[in-house]
Every structure is written in structure tokens, then in C-alpha cells.
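Hello again,

I reread your note about wanting to compare the complex against the isolated chains. To keep things tidy I'm splitting this into two emails, and this first one only covers the full assembly. Below are the input lines as submitted, including protein chains and any nucleic acid or small-molecule components. They are followed by the predicted structure of everything together. The single-chain runs will come separately.
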Amino acid sequence: MIAAVHIGATPLGLVLSVMSAERERVVVVGGGFGGLQAVRKLRRAPVDITLIDRRNFHLFQPLVYQVATGALSSGEIASPLRSIFKRNENVRVLLGEVTGFDLAERRVLLDRLPNGGEGLAVPYDSLIVAGGSSYSYFGHEDWRPFAPDVKSLESALEVRRRILTAFEAAEVEQDPARRTVWLTFVVVGAGPTGVELAGQIAEIARDTLHRDFRTIDTRAARIVLVEMADRVLPLFPPGLSARAARALEKLGVTPLVERTVVGIDQHSVTVATAEGETERLPARTVVWAAGVIASELATALAAESGSELDRAGRIAVGPDLTLPGHPEVIALGDMVQVRDTDGNAVPLPGLAPVAMQQGRYAARAVNDRLRGKEPPPFRYRDKGNLATIGRAKAVADIKGFQLSGLLAWLTWLFVHLFYLIGLQNRLLVFIRWTFSFVTRGRGSRLITGRPTRAE
Amino acid sequence: MIAAVHIGATPLGLVLSVMSAERERVVVVGGGFGGLQAVRKLRRAPVDITLIDRRNFHLFQPLVYQVATGALSSGEIASPLRSIFKRNENVRVLLGEVTGFDLAERRVLLDRLPNGGEGLAVPYDSLIVAGGSSYSYFGHEDWRPFAPDVKSLESALEVRRRILTAFEAAEVEQDPARRTVWLTFVVVGAGPTGVELAGQIAEIARDTLHRDFRTIDTRAARIVLVEMADRVLPLFPPGLSARAARALEKLGVTPLVERTVVGIDQHSVTVATAEGETERLPARTVVWAAGVIASELATALAAESGSELDRAGRIAVGPDLTLPGHPEVIALGDMVQVRDTDGNAVPLPGLAPVAMQQGRYAARAVNDRLRGKEPPPFRYRDKGNLATIGRAKAVADIKGFQLSGLLAWLTWLFVHLFYLIGLQNRLLVFIRWTFSFVTRGRGSRLITGRPTRAE
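Full-complex prediction:
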């Protein structure tokens, strides 16, 4: 089904021509929420789809932090892309790293193939790019080793290793001052991920590990949640932020708002107020959940198309999510900034529902164009905003209704189980959560992997 | 509860005196099957127990290979040691690497503590050492990078990465010869682990991945199982070995018996017959499951006690599992060779049931000695031997009854679920197995971690 064409002395060794040449060739880059929805919605259309990702699985991003806290095991929130589309003969999955785009020749340039091969070019008739985003560290990549994020499974497992090792270290630490530093945890960024993570660390210290140790009292652990804005969950209505802050404080989390991180090293985080006053927080375990920067694919697309990038590295796309001058190229999700017909930025949050709706829209747009129709502009339907804080505690802002407490928490549980891929993962996560709720335990608190922190 | 005593200018910075000094201090080294049973059986006795392990979890070793095949997620077969004993105030868990023993002063020497500390000495009145074993690579440690084992979670995840990446590599490989090499898998060692692993790889190729790829036919994969003895499962009766071999062949596994591995590199395994004829098997994915060597703790104990080590590095212990001249020190499991009163070796297989029975025996022996009784010699009750080959296929040798097929497989399932620690893990594994059985899928086939193989 694949014909390889050697193209002379170009650095690209091969051109991959995918399946039958008569059908529209759609290439989707990225198997996250946006890309997955695009492929799902397109798979019954008369098109040949190639889904390209660096990883062989779709990761349920909103629950990665629960791997970091040992609440879930990594396999339970990831689904192999191939198995999702195994019954769709017109969907092909290709592992590799997209290094660039040749918009003139309509080819996606790939590298680092699983067989060690380099330089593959995948031709397309329609292209959907959904590269997502990563944490920015405010340009301080040197902080990353001291403050891993909870974006990938690998970094979540590293965070889990650090959190659990910190309690173990405190248990054998003879010096009381150093013990306190081992028992101090700093989470940077009080968006939903930061809030949920801080709440879970507090619950681990207070409930899960309380009877596990013989020397330390894990309840003495200090969890600090640093946020640049003037409140936690700044994207929520102020009333819900206040409720979330109270719930966090009750759990033992200290929110520290209006503070910018200005330094991180192996033993501390330094924060500064708007007035420039700095404070050094001694802590051995720091987790990063702040500052989002668009995927480098936005830069690659911009270089080819002449589109603008905003400060978060996002590429500007039109109301129909296409690149200016390239109706055959759609970009979506965290890596784009949608502009209306007047060129004004349409504010959209960097959330999974936005990417999912845009993915489905992209599929419809490709289908419309195949039939000679012009798609209507993308419109985001805000279905609400959810964040959980701890056991039976959450906040929800659903079309103006503000919920908190048990009802919000049950909504959160239901929504997350619903959007997980596959019945098996839903069942496994449901069992984990049930046990965590009943026993206050975290079943998967393993210290694995090799230490990457100098201790 | 812990008093630290600085002992002058010795390299050991600290002596840890555990809990009340009046009660018998029992130190158990190793949280595997043997150590865990010893602590479980002793925890209601009037003793203070310190359980020392490098890892913070008990690993259910017989199922680690299922993590390597993506059938299970790593958290599902591991249980945090602290949570197992959280309700036992007299049990203390200590993470660290045992570097040696001071039998004269009755202290266990520890290093690599979680806080980065070095040199801790843990005093004991009774000592139980259950260090287990690892794969030997027949002395060829240089083969390890090319042929990881399935002993630890980390190496199992590396094997999983290699198996799955091999299929991905074959999918994009244009050269038919190289594609064949990517689709060749060699498992070294046809004991239960090797047989089960080879069978699972065959099932993955034949059933699980069959519809996942668009270019390759995964059913063309070749799985070779290399064994030094003259049959697979050499510890089973010959009739069951023959049945296992037939079942393997039906699945597409080629057993290659009476072959010794004489070389492994990045692209091949070289095997030799007894006559010295060599054959090179081109393969990109090799998994090691042969040759067992005792934990280095056996060497450390031998150095102190003058006990003998056998060729597998195991230390000789008496009929009551104690070191000669040290009735207060018991060693057990894969790291010991039991000698009868005449000094003859008692042949015992290197299986979990042996370690578990010895662990329980050790607890009883400590208890007996506390009450001034002399324990009877250890006697192994052979409850049988099980190995699964694939879907509804297994062999069982239970007190002379030889089973194969569905009944043996159900026995295998039941026994493994029964011995898993904790209701939660049992439920999770049961769900995984049910889904695998019904869908022929492997839910956790994720390629994670960084490549350690040059590709």
C-alpha cells in the first residue's frame, strides 16, 4: 500500500505516498484531544487519513497529575492510537517527529522514525495540525530539572518519584531543619492542574501517608501554591476562586498569590511580589504548572506561511481555523490564536473542550470543502469549567451556574470518566477512585526510575 | 522513636536504634515474597520489626513479564510496603541499600538513604535476609544492553518499549530484509517466564496488533525461544514440556532447545549447539530470562560468616535456614542453598512458593527462639508448578497430577490473582485480563521512556 519514492540528493530520503491516489489525503498531526476528534469525525468520510504523532498513544492530559500523585497508574489514562482506529482501514498511524512543513509542495516533513530512519515526506491534500502546547518556564529552561511538570507521563512519574522520596528522606533525616525542607512542597501555577495537584499532595500528606511513617508526622508537610494572578483559578469567577482557596487552606495548602517565581534551585524557590520584594521558600520538591507555550509546530507553520505568532508562540488562524492563504491547512488547539474576520483575537481558553470542538470542526470543514461547500466559521460552545480540589471538593462554572462541593465533584468525576477513551480505562480509573475515596489511599505510590535530582 | 547515635570517626555516621530497647529487634532485609511473609507472620509477635528494601514496594515478580507485553500497567502488580504494614505500629519500613553486615556487632550496614545520607547501621537481635536473585547473563554483563530482562519494572518497561517499537519500525521500514529482522524476537531461557513471554509476544503479533498496522502483516513475526536444556520448561515433567512446546509452536513460537547463547549484539543473537556449531539469528529485539544468580547479599553474608557460596552465588544455610554459627541470622529464598544435617544440598526450585514458605518458617523460628524453643527444620511443601503459554493454555504439575489446557489456565489465573497483594490490584488485574481475553487486546501497550537502544 505504500510506495516509496527516492527523491535524488535531497536531504529527504523518501516520499511516502499513502494509499490510493484518487482519494483525498488528509494528514493529521498530533494525537491529542484535537487531532483525535478530527480523525474520529473524518474516518467514515471518503478520505485516506494519516495520523502522525511522536507517541503511540493518546494521553488523557487532565488526569496526568493523578499519575504524579500515585492515584492512577500510567497505563490507565493512555490509549494506543492504533487500537483506537484499528477498525478504520482508511486511517493510518505514523510515529515520528514532525520537523517542518512544505506548504508549497503540500508535504509534512518527518524525522526520527521508529526504525531510526530520517527524512520522510508525507504528502497531503488537506492538513490538520494539532500540536498542543507545553509549559514555558517563563523562558527559564534551566529551572526544569528542579521543577518538573505534569505534562508527559515521564515527567509525571518523575514528580511522583520526588514527592514520595521526599517523605522517605524526611523519615530518615536527623536534622529538624532539613526535615522541614524535605516536607515542603511548592506547586507553581494555580490553574486547575496546579490546584488539583496541590490539593492531592495535601491529601496524601494528611490522609494517605499519615499512618505509613514511624518517625515523621506527614501531616506537618507544608504545601505552597504560588500564583502570579491575584487569586487561585484565575479563569473562574472570583466567587469560585475564593471558595477554592478556602477549600485548599482547609486541606493544608497555602496559596501564595500575586507572586512571580524569580528563581528555582535544588533547595528553594524564590518568589517576588509586584513591588519587587523577594522571598526564598526552602523546598526540595517543586512542581511546575504555569506558563503555557505553543508547540514548535506553530513556529514551523509560521515560517512557511508568513503568519504571525503571538507572545505565547501561537500562530494566528482565520475564523475557519485555516492559515491565511492556505485553505487546505487547518491548525487548532493550544497552538493557535483564532482571529475574527476583522483580524481581532478571539479569546479562547487553553482547554481540552476547545481543542475537541475545533478538531470536530476541522473534520467538518474538510468534508465541506470536499463537497465544494464553504464551512461556516468556528464557534466555541462553552460548556463550563471544572476543577477538583480534593475528596468530594470541586468547583464548577457551568453556563453561569456556579457549583461547589460534592455536586461539583461528582460532575467532575462523571465528565472525566466520560471523556476517557475506552471502557477498560474507565473501569480501571473508576475502581482506583473508589478505593481512594473509601480508603483514602493512593494505590500506585511507587518510587520508580532512576533519580534525576541530585540529593 | 528513633535515636541517632554518632559513632565517632567511623565511616558509619549513625547508628539507628529502633524503638524500645526491651523488645526483640528483628530486621528483615528484602520486601520480596520471602521477606514479606516473614514480616506478615511476625507482626503480631512481641517484636519490633524493621523491613529494609531498596524499593518502596513489593513487586509481584511472576507477572512482571505482563508489564513487558502491555497486558498490565506497572502499578497493578506492585504494592507500597508502607501501606501493607500501615496498621502495624511495630513494623517500620526503611528504604536504603544494604551494603554489608556486621555479624559480630549485630548490625546491618546501609547506604544510599533517600535523603542522600550514607552510612547507617541498624542493630538487630534477629536478622532475616531475603535478598532474592537476578539474571546472570552467564557472566556476560555486556549483553545486558542488548537483551534486557523482565525482573524489575524499569527493565520490563524497556522491554515493552522495544517490542512495540520493533513493530513500528517494521511498519516504516522499506527494506524487506531489515523488516524481517525487526519482526524477529528472541527470548533466551525457556523457564516459565521465558515461555510465558514468548507466548505473549506471539499472541500480540497474531491477535492484538494484527489489525493495527496498514503495511506489515504482524502475523509474519518470528518468535524464537532459546533454551540450553533439551526441552522447554525443564523443571516440569517431560510430558508437560512436550505439550507446552506444541502449544508454543501452534502460537508461532519456534523453540530452539539444546542451544547456548554465545553472543548478542544490536542486530543478532548467536547460539551454539553442544557440538560447537554456531548459528546467528538476526533479531532486533532480544529478551533475557535465563541464568539466575543470587543477590550480592549472599556474598556479603558469606564474607562475614565464612559460609560457602555455590556456583550460582548462593550461600549455604543449615536445615533451619540459619548461618552456621549464627542462630540469630536466617537467610532464605533464591539467595540460599539449604543443606541438610549431613551437609548435603537440598534441591529446591527458585520459585515464589519456596521463598514464601521459608519466610513464614523464619518468622516461626524467631518466635520459637524467643520462647526458648528450638525450631524444627524447614521442610518445603511442593504445591505444584504452573506455567501459562497463552490464551486458555497452560500446563500444571500439581502433586503428580499433570494438567494442561483450560483447566490448568484457570488454575494459573486463580493462583496468581489470589497471591496478588490487595483487593484493588486483584480487581484491576482481573479487569485487564477479562478485556484481554474478550478483545484479544493488550490495554497498556505504550511506548514510554527514552530509547536506550541505538536504533
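For quick reference: Chain B has two domains: 2-54+96-135+293-370, 139-289.

B.
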